[in-house]
TrEMBL record:
InterPro entries: CheY-like_superfamily, NreC/VraR/RcsB-like_REC, Sig_transdc_resp-reg_C-effctor, Sig_transdc_resp-reg_receiver, Tscrpt_reg_LuxR_C, WalR-like
Natural source organism: Dactylosporangium darangshiense
Domain Response regulatory residues, every copy: 3-119
UniProt modified residues of type 4-aspartylphosphate: 54
Domain of life according to the entry: Bacteria
Keywords: DNA-binding, Phosphoprotein, Transcription, Transcription regulation
Sequence ranges assigned to domain HTH luxR-type in this UniProt record: 149-214
Signal peptide bounds: none
Protein name according to UniProt: Response regulator transcription factor
Length: 227
């Protein structure tokens, strides 16, 4: 059972999310918060797998709350949702450690799929957001990173570096397996090792890292990190 927390300052929105999620046998809502401070306290005091976090809330906003939650540990994974299609929100959410970012105008099916993807330890961006993430992170920062980050990259094997390049293009495990002529179980192991060696939380962080540190350069992207 995937345990979900809801953080949104509108009761009707929280109720709608609860109704959508609890139509599924493998999803259950275990708590609700009406602002960012409540969300932080709820995340600390409730065993949960995923936290659906609104960006704009009174007091402590969703971005600041996400930074506090992700700094404290690996769970719950934060899935940001907003009605505002703004780049600054998107990039700030990823830098805060969110595992995914979706717009609220998506379908119920997209929300359900996103929760499952984030819960299993993968990461998700709405496909229409991926090119903007790549372009924005790549332009100002593709300068090789710090000496420590360069050292981390050197710890990757040639095969793991190939996997990182595929992750940066948004490839799924199945797609990586085909392109690199590997089994999916082997790909999953390589992905796990890449994230561990680079000290990254998830696949979205791998995309950002790869572009920030010049592993890949901007160009036509695939459909974004999906798991």
């Amino acid at each position: 059972m995937i345990r979900v927390l809801l953080a949104d300052d509108h009761q009707l929105v929280r109720t709608g999310f609860r109704v959508i999620l609890e139509t599924e046998d493998d999803l259950t809502v275990v708590g609700e918060a009406a602002d960012g401070r409540q969300a932080v306290e709820l995340a600390r005091g409730t065993e949960a797998d995923v936290l659906l976090m609104d960006v704009e809330m009174p007091g402590l906003d969703g971005l600041a709350a996400t930074r506090e939650i992700t700094a404290a540990g690996p769970t719950p994974a934060v899935l940001m949702l907003t009605t505002f299609d703004r780049d600054d929100y998107l990039f700030a959410a990823l830098e805060a450690g969110a595992s995914g970012f979706l717009l609220k105008n998506g379908t119920p099916e997209a929300l359900i799929d996103a929760v499952r993807i984030v819960a299993r330890g993968d990461a998700l961006l709405a496909p229409e957001l991926t090119r903007r993430v790549i372009a924005a992170f790549a332009r100002p920062k593709a300068q090789g990173g710090s000496p420590r980050q360069a050292q981390l990259l050197e710890e990757l094997t040639p095969r793991e570096r190939e996997v990182l390049v595929e992750l940066a293009g948004g490839a799924t495990n199945a797609e990586i397996a085909v392109r690199l002529h590997l089994g999916e179980a082997t790909v999953k192991t390589h992905v796990s090792r890449v994230l561990t060696k680079l000290g990254l939380r998830d696949r979205t962080a791998a995309v950002v890292f790869a572009y920030e540190h010049g592993v890949v350069t901007p160009g036509p992207s695939r459909d974004g990190p999906r798991g």
